[in-house]
RNA sequence: GGGCCUGUAGCUCAAUUGGUCAGAGCAGAGCGCUCAUAACGCUUUGGUUGGGGGUUCAAGUCCCUCCGGGCCUACCA
């Protein structure tokens, strides 16, 4: 038994995430965590909300609420949606937790002691009307290059020229529109990650089995231009983790907070501390996952994230850990994803384009979404959601191949033998052949799941479902029943057991349907099949069952068309 | 501008890293079955692997070039 630490990139607090966000981190992380638990390993699966930063403050202001209250509410909303999608976090934390405050301040203190923090005085734009410093992209004005009047302070969207906020003609606040802006001096802490460049480079080089997407982004940041740049890790905001050196004040940094991208990854660690506290465990319970000197040496740590998060997980966070000089666990494998597009364009939070988590659950059960999203995960390139594809895949795979198999077996059994598994009869060459095929496919399925090759794993699982239909067709119990009822009984006994195996193997993808099947079979046996012959003999003759409700109904053309138009534009 | 990814059957994707006639699912066509959610099974049509050039005994795979799609480029997170 191994110990697997799994984290999903933590979703930002300012709203409900869309399906693209879901499939980029939380859902595949859940798949992996469930699979590893199913195989009998000890798993710690952590996620949280990322609550700090300017957008959170603005969203709270827009909602007319104190930011702490807003975040607490949105955390509850996101937690509820996570439950709705059956995301099996051991803990869903908050980056604003006291644990994260302590740990973030601790890391900053260690980094400072080791010479990895620099203080830089810089010029930033301050808006009197908004009462805050403005990040570059919250300043709008006319582009000096092309004359576009809605250029942002970091870049002009029209001509793509990189800009400095002071380049803008007639600059104004993108928040209030105020032109009462001034440049002020402010002092910030920088993480001197350039000092760790060689160490990070060697570490990335050693990860030969990581996805290209992951390593190429890291390499780019390490070697582009002048190489890895130091990064500001503090901000002039009120909402965040106060800048402190461990437990002590940081002279000259009063009133400042750490930048979200410094404290967000540390929340992975803090989330486990929150978990320990919530369950009344001592600190050692969470530290054994994170400290290699306190039991984490045998932990395998896997992170899941969209490609936009890769630089922070391959460079900044590792630099934080390395620079601390303390034996914290570094990530062992980073699984990164491309984007999921929506029907010919991008999902858009601002335009309400696409399907959001709450809307998805309001029209179909979680399993439908889980199956489609995972079996089409954007692993090698950006993928696209279309309603036609969704309808076709879900109807065919879930309703026809899996659902109908369960239906034909259980209903046949009920009508010919009654509601218990029939006895008698012997298995023959067809069963031997089936078991051989299933055994080979099981190995392939496990290989893909171990390697986090999600699409391939889904395809293999589907092929395992198909084996059942092929077998039934070849064995034809309805024909055997007329001449040799005991032979039909043997076929059905095996098929009923096959349903249990399907439930166990499918559970990481479609947990609710799997549990429905196990309940119908009146069994709690969820043992992963170590050998197919044994696994297919778990339910004995005489074991009772009930015919389950239709496992998956089909999506009709009318539904598809209605949803297609409903989700095309503004959400409302 | 620079960097990275990507282009394979009508659609969604494979191809053991240079090695038999480029494979699967869906859609289409034909046949079979009647236990089942008009479901299932079998057979089958369909590709000059975006275009062009090159290296090699051998190229979807490596190199050059052109065309298309996407992402990143460090103060949104």
Automatic annotation (TrEMBL):
Its main location: cytoplasm. Binds 1 zinc ion per subunit. Residues 421-571 form the Methionyl-tRNA synthetase anticodon-binding domain. One of its GO terms (biological process) is methionyl-tRNA aminoacylation. PANTHER family: METHIONINE--TRNA LIGASE, METHIONINE--TRNA LIGASE, CYTOPLASMIC. Keywords: Aminoacyl-tRNA synthetase, ATP-binding, Cytoplasm, Ligase, Metal-binding, Nucleotide-binding, Protein biosynthesis, Zinc. This is Methionine--tRNA ligase. Its EC number is 6.1.1.10. The gene is metG. Monomer. Is required not only for elongation of protein synthesis but also for the initiation of all mRNA translation through initiator tRNA(fMet) aminoacylation. It comes from the Bacteria. Residues 4-409 form the Methionyl/Leucyl tRNA synthetase domain. It catalyses: tRNA(Met) + L-methionine + ATP = L-methionyl-tRNA(Met) + AMP + diphosphate. Its cofactor is Zn(2+). Zn(2+) binds at residues 143, 146, 156, 159. Coiled coil: none annotated. It holds the Pfam family tRNA-synt_1g. CDD domains: Anticodon_Ia_Met, MetRS_core. The keyword Aminoacyl-tRNA synthetase applies.
